C-alpha cells in the first residue's frame, strides 16, 4: 500500500493511477478487479495487466481472486 500523500491509497487507487499512466504512455494496460469466492465475507482486489502479464507486487495475494473481466480505467472524451 502506498503510504505517501494526503491519504493512503488502496489497491484500486493505485491500479487506476498506474493503468491511466501506462495508457498515456501507449502501453496496452487493463484494469482488473477480482473477488474472492466462498469465504463467507466479501473481499476484492484490483490490479493491472499488460499483455497478460500481471503488474502487482502482491502476485500471491491476487491469485486468490477471480477476475470480473477487463475494466475501463480511462474514458477520456474529446471536447
Number of strands: 4
Q: Strand fraction band? A: 25-35%
Task: Write down the overall geometry.
Answer: globular
- Report strand order across the widest sheet: 3-2-1-4
Q: For the terminal residues, how far apart are their CA atoms?
A: 35 Å
Along the chain, the helix and strand elements come as HEEEHE
What is the number of helices? 2
Helix content: 10-25%
Q: pLDDT below 50 for ≥5 consecutive residues: which ranges?
A: 73-79
Helical/strand content category: alpha+beta
Name some characteristics of this structure.
alpha+beta; four-stranded antiparallel beta sheet; 23% helix
Short description:
The chain has 79 residues and is an alpha+beta fold. It contains two helices and four strands.
What is the secondary structure topology, with strand pairs?
Layout: H1 11-24, E1 29-35, E2 44-50, E3 53-55, H2 59-62, E4 66-71
Protein model, in words:
The chain is of the alpha+beta class. It has one domain. 23% of the residues lie in helices and 29% in strands. The chain has 2 helices and 4 strands; from the N terminus they run αβββαβ. It has helices spanning 11-24, 59-62; strands at 29-35, 44-50, 53-55, 66-71. It has a 4-stranded antiparallel β-sheet, with helices on one face. The N and C termini lie far apart (35 Å). The model is unreliable at 73-79 (pLDDT under 50).
